[in-house]
Amino acid sequence: MLEDPRVSRQDKSRVVDRVFPEAYKGLLQTLVKYETVALLDDMKTGLQAEKDKRERRITIRLSYVTPPSVQEKDQMEILLKQKFAASEVRWLEEEKPELLGGFLLQVNGWEYDYSTRGRWLELKRGLIRR
User: How does pLDDT run across 45-102, given as a tens digit for each residue?
Assistant: First the structure.
């Protein structure tokens, strides 16, 4: 509702005053005033990234066709903690049949593609260059 252009600023402001705790009202009123409430998600993401960095926490995005065993996942975690000097790990896992096999790991902009699809694309690029 706070992002809806059909709702007046005054109505949005009243909602902020009625619904949100005092600690958030100033920020939300400013975002409503300048019609930038949509930035709230980006702000939250940025703040979470800074908190994760301070606490040496990484988020590992794991895409796979078949889920790895507990042992495989533990090995991945140990290696990635060392690589990124992390003390804590958060896993985001997703099944992706389009990988055809294997897995894809993504951490802090770094990517390790050990999928069948990724290997096939790498081979294809190599053949095209020749």
Answer: 888 889 988 999 999 999 999 999 999 999 999 999 999 999 999 999 999 999 999 9
* Contact in structure between 65 and 96 (CB atoms under 8 Å): yes
Which contiguous run of DSSP H or E holds residue 64? strand 57-64
Q: Are 72 and 64 in contact (CB under 8 A)?
A: no
Residue 110's SS3 state is: strand
**pTM higher than 0.90:** no
**Mapping DSSP to helix (H, G, I), strand (E, B) and coil, where does residue 87 land?**
coil
Q: Which two tokens stand for residue 32?
A: 């409503």
The alpha carbon torsion through 31, 36, 41, 46 (nearest 10 deg) reads -80
